[in-house]
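Anyone opening a protein record will find just a pair of labelled lines. A complete record is shown below as an example.
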Amino acid sequence: MKKLENKVAVVTGASKGIGAAIAKKLAAEGAAVIVNYASAVKDAERVVAEIVSHGGRAIAVQADVSKTDDIDRLFTETIKQYGAVDILVNNAGIYQWGPIEDVTEEGFYRQFGINVLGPLLATKAAVQYFSDKGGSIINIGSGASSMEPAGSALYTATKSAVDSITRVLSKELGPRNIRVNSINPGMVDTEGSRAGGFIGSEMAMVMANTTPLRRIGAPEDIALVAAFLSSDDARWLTGEIILASGGLR
């Protein structure tokens, strides 16, 4: 029997990158997966098609995680299709690096809306549907919250908030047997990091050379950790911030 057989997982921001890899891995372990996306419908449909082609179960559901109505619809569709929720992966996120001179009100509210309010709204909705057996909530943070690189004040602030939310909710939801953990990746080779100019940059080369495992991460590296935290193998772990960075600190 697969580790996540008969489980239902909602993965936000799952049309590309780390989210897509997590969705595929959870499905491979037996979970039915809701592939959430904000606007990249074709990418989400490709993720679903790949899961189904390998014998898995998945549907794509559009929702902006920073909007309550969208979150409500996301979970309504989940329950309608699969009747339960056991796992929530709060992966949806955005980033925009730059010096303090580039910080704007619009940028602040956009990043905090998706990176911080999004996980809060999704968690608030999910816990209504977890069974008496509990469940697993996995937040995708960032190594930036501990490494604190220059030019990342706004982004790092959002991910530091996710660290705190993880610890607080682990205590709040623990009595209900709901585990809350965070995976904080280092640099990962995704569509987003390539579009942002990180992959292939001098910064990426320095990070790879100073990482003990001597490479940039792959989405699948993070997906393996997410599958572990989703399963009963991690039943005694909650409130943990797991730095998945190949040893870079």
Remarks:
- Strands lie at 8-11, 32-37, 57-62, 87-90, 135-140, 178-185, 241-244.
- The chain has a mean pLDDT of 95.
- The longest helix spans residues 105-126.
- The radius of gyration is 17 Å.
